Amino acid sequence: MVVKVGFLSLAHMHAYSYGRALNNLANCTLVGIYDPNKERGIKGAQEMNTRFFGDPAELLTQVDAVIICSENNRHREFTELAAKYGCHVLCEKPIATTMEDAEAMIDACREAKVKLQIAFPVRFATPVMRVKEMLHRGAIGDVVAITGTNHGQMPGGWFVDPVLAGGGAVMDHTVHVVDLIRWFLGQEFVSVYAEAGCGMLWDVDIDDCGMLSMELEGGTIVTQDPSWSRPRTNPTWGDVTLHIVGAKGVIDLDAYAQNFVVYDDAQNKVSERSFAEDMDLGLITDFITMITDDREPSITGLDGLKAMEVALAAYESARINKPIALN
After folding, report:
1. For the chain, what are the domain ranges?
2. The whole model's pTM is what?
3. Is 32:258 a contact under the CB 8 Å cutoff?
4. What pLDDT digit, counting tens, does each position of 228-275 carry?
5. Contact between 127 and 279 (Cβ < 8 Å)
6. Region for 138 from its dihedrals, namely left if φ exceeds 0, alpha if ψ lies in -120 to 50, beta otherwise
7. What is the pLDDT of residues 270-297, one digit of tens each?
8. CATH 3.30.460.10 for domain 3-119
9. Does residue 217 sit in helix, strand or coil?
10. CA 211 to chain CA centroid, nearest Å
11. What kind of architecture, by CATH, is found in domain 123-277+308-325?
12. Residue 181: in which H helix or E strand, if any?
């Protein structure tokens, strides 16, 4: 089976990496791209060696699945449209900007009997998968505390528009770490206390830094820094790290440590060149295999909802300066 795939919007920069992955797989074909921004869509289609569609319905009648890389607040719109045409969905994170929209997306896909997967590619990084296996076999005993980071550069564009993005750094980066911890431990978050600041690192009117203190069912404590704290001169966009403390030992995870640091006097810059496996390729391979094998998504709509729920609770906590209990 060759899975026919299309894109609904290229607003998110990950779309181009996903497109390269699709073009490198033998069991799928990239049929085309629809983007409300015609100029961006045409340029992206040329870069990915595919066709631009001016009408999403025309694209959706020709594909088995879509990848949604729109602005966050349009995820529901495009997911419901794809479900209407019977297309499976891989939606960029966060799943949405409100709980209502996330629940509607899950319901629409369930009622249409199509699969909804959320894009958390960090699950497919080799160091991350090894930590998952270590925790599963009890290598450090019961986990009692975790501290994590998902730092990054300030992305600009629609990411700093609170309506389109649903939030700033806390929305953008909390969900990755929360998803990993839920996946590692199979436990839900039960409370969140957060502080967040707007324009503290960058000239933006949205949160660009924050700190979250959380608790998991069973009492494990978690802290996370999701700030856009990496300067433009940083050799890479950011990081995903976890320091996991167990009753019998400690695991330190750096998901992006597989790289060479290159000091280039000719270009007067420092850069990092990765030698790690392509986690975006891992995500896309998993999505296509899910369809060909007719299995359930490895990263479900509920996974996306639960990760976003923590981010939304963090904003409410920062607003009222009190911990928020989660259901």
Report:
1. 3-119, 123-277+308-325
2. 0.95
3. no
4. 999 988 888 889 999 999 999 999 999 998 888 888 899 888 888 888
5. no
6. left
7. 888 888 889 999 999 999 999 999 999 9
8. no
9. coil
10. 19
11. 2-Layer Sandwich (3.30)
12. helix 169-185
